Amino acid sequence: MTGMSRPPVDDAWLVVPLFNEAAVVGDVVRGVLPTFPHVVCVDDGSSDGSAAVARAAGARVLEHPVNLGQGAALQTGITYALSRGARYVVTFDADGQHRVEDAADMVDLARREDVAIVFGSRFLDDRTDAGLLKRIVLKVAVWFTNQSTGLRLTDAHNGLRVMRADAARGVRLRQDRMAHASEIVLQLGRTRLPWREHPVHVLYTDYSRGKGQSLWNSVNILVDLVFR
Amino acid sequence: MLIQVILLVAIGWVAVVLNRSTADARHQAIRRLLLAAFIVAAAASVLFPSILSRIANVIGVGRGADLLLYGLVIAFLSFIATSFRRMSRMQSQLTALARELTLARAALVDRGVVPDVAGPDAPTPGGPAVSSDDPRDD
């Protein structure tokens, strides 16, 4: 499970939606580049110079001219990665809460077992300490996503996913804002391609806790999903 | 009476403003017909206020003013609904446009036509733009 010793994954593109994460995105990009040489950050109209930081750290940076939302940034990155011939598209958060070892393990799993989609899950083991209230909200989100997608996932709204190119081509996100996390599961489920879940460890740092989705946001997500 | 003049002028103004928007032909036609009916009804209720009261009484509402309020509530709600739909459609058009722009620019950068630097108004973290020659972009 050591990330340093493995050879770089050069047929995968890491897609990192980026919005006002200048404080951490440089370290995140430098941390993933040895394992994933192809990293595209989609800067979604940041006002803190995140794009320049990510570019200096060595990522390929695309910039939305205006802020559109995380779902829109994700879709732009996926489309770009496919256009560059990615065999695997890995979605990865910019705030440093995902571990590159998990991402690499998930690509390995997809390759080894010939599955098209690997979802990261916080709840397959007990490494991730999310806090009671957050656990409850996430469990409700999981239930809601499973009801509407027909898949049986243990985690929803986890930003770490691996999609083989054929699965990624089935994704057309129309939810620009946070509700894309359910939409992407729905669209990937519709591809009928084989999928797995893989346990991941989400690092809740003070930084990510400070920026993370507030509980209010789950109300917005629900409204976006119902009225659209 | 002065109030009748004021109200008629206001109704006429609304009629002109609402008719200037463009959409697909059938929806636009329906909207204009409804609007025409509304204008006639509004003008009639101003000129002959007793008509409104009589209609209200027939359908079991106490006063004409109450009927007006109910109608207004429904009109307002439908306005919220249509503008919500219009806003989401505009948002997805904006997204498509912005994505196309971003990807077109990225393709130019990847082909080496334009350098990979931030746009002119892009914010930088305390200093001039940092442009790095990305070795992976050939």
From TrEMBL, chain A:
Organism of origin: Flavimobilis rhizosphaerae
Top-level division of the source organism's lineage: Bacteria
Protein name: Glycosyltransferase family 2 protein
Sequence similarity: Belongs to the glycosyltransferase 2 family.
Listed InterPro entries: Glyco_trans_2-like, Glycosyltransferase_2, Nucleotide-diphossugar_trans
Domain Glycosyltransferase 2-like: start-end pairs: 14-166
Automatic annotation (TrEMBL), chain B:
Region (Disordered): 115-138
Keyword list, A-Z: Membrane, Transmembrane, Transmembrane helix
Segments traversing the membrane: 6-22, 34-55, 67-84
InterPro entries per UniProt: DUF2304
Protein origin, superkingdom: Bacteria
UniProt protein name: DUF2304 domain-containing protein
Species: Flavimobilis rhizosphaerae
Upper lineage: Bacteria, Bacillati, Actinomycetota, Actinomycetes, Micrococcales
